[in-house]
Amino acid sequence: MSTELDNLYQEIILDHYKNPHHKGLRDPFESEVHHVNPTCGDEVTLRVHLADGPSGAMVQDVSYDSVGCSISQASASVMADLVIGKPVDEAMSIHQTFLELMQGKGQVEPDEDVLEDGIAFAGVAKFPARVKCALLSWMAWKDATTQARSDTAPAVTDVVGENR
Predict the structure, then answer these.
(1) Ordered DSSP codes for 80-101
(2) Is the distance from CB of 104 to CB of 93 less than 8 angstroms?
(3) pLDDT band for position 156 (50/70/90)?
(4) What pLDDT score was predicted for residue 151?
(5) Where along the chain do its domains lie?
(6) For 3-151, which CATH class?
(7) Does the structure show a pLDDT above 70 at 162?
């Protein structure tokens, strides 16, 4: 990756960190989860609100409260931007694309059409300790969304430990 591109990606991450989108817990919601990255102390409490759409369940809202490094904070902001307003199945596909980027050890070419500002995290994938930071909110979102879609899921869960 070029130095200019690295600088651009750093600017995107810092902008989302300093000016987070969708931050602050909001009602209504169907599910709330709390995830912690024990290796660095990053935490996120995340709520998901789903609504019926023309093609099934839609991600109506994602709200969160988080503490942690700039990467985990910015990633939560980017994630919320990418999934709100999308059908759940499409949002899960975006999640999978981001997960593949993060697990690619810097060898996966990011798809800007799918990930938009999420491509800024391509360089993070080269640093295994930071991948967990970038994935924290994404895994919390997937967990909360899965629970919200389940009729038997508890409304609130607390997960501490490794990202799943």
Answers:
(1) HHHHTTSBHHHHHHHHHHHHHH
(2) no
(3) low
(4) 57
(5) 3-151
(6) alpha beta
(7) no
